[in-house]
Amino acid sequence: MPLIVNIQSVTGNTPVDIYVCNSGGGSCTYVATVAVFPYQFEVDDTYATTDFIVKIIDTAGCEDQVPILVTPTPTPSIT
After folding, report:
1. pLDDT tens, 46-65?
2. Cys staple from 48: which of 3, 9, 55, 56, with CB 3.0 to 4.6 Å?
């Protein structure tokens, strides 16, 4: 099930490039170049089923990584 990520604001030189990466910070996928916030995007199941990182790089090359922790959905058990 896809997740929705909302970025309310950034502190940096806009526009910024936004990426979604696996929890180790590698294997990143480009999302968009954004200059106006808030900004919302959908993370597909490639990343949304486990913890992942949102990477933001501004025009000066400054990089910020925000870890997103995904809480697993409990699976029903037969008792």
Report:
1. 888 889 999 999 999 999 99
2. 3
